[in-house]
Amino acid sequence: MDIKDIIKEENLVYSKTKVLTDNIMHYCPGCTHGVVHKILAEVIDELNIQEKTIGVTPVGCAVLAYNYLHIDWQEAAHGRAPAVATAINRLYPEKYVFTYQGDGDLASIGAAEIIHACNRGEKMMVIFINNGIYGMTGGQMAPTTLEGMPTATSPYGRDVKMTGQPLKITELIAQLPGTCYVTRQAAHTPAAVRKLKKAITKALENTGKKKGTSFIEVVSTCNSGWKLSPVKSNEWMVEHMFPYYPLGDMKDE
Question: What is the pLDDT of residues 16-35, one digit of tens each?
Answer without folding.
Answer: 899 999 999 989 888 999 99
